Amino acid sequence: MGENVAVIGVGHTEFGELWDKSWVELVEEAGLQALQDAGIMKGDIDKFFLGNMSLGMFGGQEHTASKVFSEIFKGDAESEVLGRRIEGACSSGGLALEASFNDVLAGAHSGDDKIIMAGGFEKMTDKPTDQATKILSAASDMGKELGFTFPALYGMLKDRYIQETDAEEEDFDHIAVKSHKNASKNPRAQYPFEVTHDKVKNSFRVASPTKLLNSSGIADGAAAAIMTTEKKAKELGSNYVLLEEVVGVNDSIALFEREDVLTLVSTKKAAKRAYKSSGLTPADVDVAEVHDCFSIAEALALEDLGFSPKKEVWKWIKKSLSGCEDKEAPIPYELPNNSELYVNTSGGLKAKGHPVGATGIAQAVEVTEQLRGEAGERQVPGAKVGLTHNVGGSGGTAVVSLLRKP
Amino acid sequence: MGENVAVIGVGHTEFGELWDKSWVELVEEAGLQALQDAGIMKGDIDKFFLGNMSLGMFGGQEHTASKVFSEIFKGDAESEVLGRRIEGACSSGGLALEASFNDVLAGAHSGDDKIIMAGGFEKMTDKPTDQATKILSAASDMGKELGFTFPALYGMLKDRYIQETDAEEEDFDHIAVKSHKNASKNPRAQYPFEVTHDKVKNSFRVASPTKLLNSSGIADGAAAAIMTTEKKAKELGSNYVLLEEVVGVNDSIALFEREDVLTLVSTKKAAKRAYKSSGLTPADVDVAEVHDCFSIAEALALEDLGFSPKKEVWKWIKKSLSGCEDKEAPIPYELPNNSELYVNTSGGLKAKGHPVGATGIAQAVEVTEQLRGEAGERQVPGAKVGLTHNVGGSGGTAVVSLLRKP
Fold first, then answer.
1. What is the CATH number of the domain that holds B141?
2. For B88-144, how does the pLDDT look when each residue is reduced to its tens digit (9 = 90+)?
3. Which position among B12, B197, B354, B389 bears the catalytic label?
4. Range of A140's domain?
5. Within this chain, do residues B223 and B284 fall inside the same structural domain, yes or no?
6. Co-location of B224 and B339 in the same domain
7. How many domains does chain A have?
8. How many beta carbons lie within 10 A of that of residue B149, not counting itself?
9. Nearest CA of chain B to the CA of A80: how many Å?
10. B90 is catalytic
11. In this structure, is the dihedral angle defined by the CA atoms of residues B338, B340, B343 and B346, taken in order, positive or negative?
12. What ipTM does this complex have?
């Protein structure tokens, strides 16, 4: 059992327009919450991996791991904490989770029970929304030169999906209704209010057929998760969950280089490997936090993660979520490969918020709390297995993790 | 011997104002050179770590590992190469070297002989020099808000050094003379011309006492190094050198938070650990590529790396390098802890060039070629042990590696 990885503490700031806090204060807040939750001290951390997409473009600061070391860890006398920043656009947090997981495993193989913190943050709202949208296009292929924005890129995917299937545009709007409903039970959410299907359907077209209420917003926030070996977690008496696997996979950054734009090959491969190495299947998953930067992205994710055959999930979305305005959160999907799957109980990127570098870690925080039975009004009864799914760009990178109640 | 790491191939573009090449073409050029040098194919690579400080601010593009995957690796049919970007300002390359080294070791511990490529690049000259200088200040503590530039920060260190010792400003100018002399023998160098001591002494004051010819310039370039286990290197019949250790250490990002600004604690600790774990000492080192972004930085590095007691190296610089205009390159130092040390035979950051994210890898390329006896006119006879030293900011991060001829 010495080579199992355990998440022993998590932290998560409020997501939103947090103009009264600096980025480093947000990282500190999430990090200290995670330390407190784990019941350990700063100096117990061996290393941290920090996911951030672009504080350079958002705030003119790089070398953030050194700054975090200075502000948070250096005071701790002889502490020799190491800090490294990882960047993979909106999957930066997921890649920090992956690097941390790999580091714990590598330590375990040489008999060293390391304690690693995975952190992620973004500070986006200091820029006006149009500038922030331009900065985010740096995650796509030559976004600056080609002038594509992500609402447009995902709009193209939605258009194509509608062309290739019998789905109608408004089928996807149910997803936003469900996510807002879930977010209304999440005190950390950026948009903790409910929306009706009509409201989503009639919302402003940002880049048709992507509408405002199909889209995640611009947000500030940070999240942190501390992990070590299960052996060490037991020694520490932690209230832990097992991190069974974290797999990050690359694909072409540009949509036009893909054989089938409606398949995110990176997601598909990452999921396949994660299921294989953990021995789990889509049917085993009780809760999933998936990368719903736009409504169509949640639909595609459900297919690529194996919960539905390709080009069929829209039927199940319609069936599961029609009229969900009147149901109580959290609201499950019924899917062909999973009879009751709770997706984005946190509210997801759509309604909890998407400070991009934080997202991959924030997803792991939500799933950890669900598996510990501490998700409050969002709690999925008896949740035993959880999945996170974090995408960079429109699938140039995808990271899938599987977590399990011990 | 299965856990020794071997560098089996290296690549290095010309450094300079390369306006006719895109950043991804530079990365491809260095990467393909390294593959050819190693005698392996793209698909043999398991993973690459890409060091880059800020293509976001320099060129509006993030998610660079995905782009490199798309352009270089994806064509290779079923290749499952993974790409990750690491950022630690000017030490991004060194951190990619460290991540690659750790990944080979981790694989070896679980019986997997991975082949990893460490790459680094920067594309800086598309911006005017004043804008590039501002972008680089993102590596310092709140550089944007405080208005510090690196010529100014290192100027403060030089001033302080002169105040605390009997060194004179012009003592440091010998370093630039030596580095340009070395660069004149390096076909990849940005500034492959010689300069006299008088010319350095009388050059324009960029941020007094930092003069133009004490400073590295703004450059484009990329470098790559492929590594695996020594066992695998032997199987492949590679002409390899051993990478004994790579250690990256953090310190406070701001100078004012340090007990003694004239000691880069990150360099000192990284060197100490690298020497300890490899069993090597400063006296064993034949060639060293150190982070001479400014002349004072090379002097401080020689002290912090253990080649001279603190605050004394200026005497040895004066003694070793006075009148070196008239000597043949490469020109060694005589130092109290190393009787003949060749430093920055490549020309260093000063004269070979400093495309910041490439530097940490480029240093390893130079040392590898020296240890293989392939450094041409710059060859240090009988070089057996080499060191690289790569700094982020003004010491918020430092990475030290030790290499050895097998």
1. 3.40.47.10
2. 999 999 999 999 999 999 999 888 999 999 999 999 999 999 999 999 999 999 888
3. B354
4. 129-216+247-404
5. no
6. no
7. 2
8. 18
9. 8
10. yes
11. negative
12. 0.96
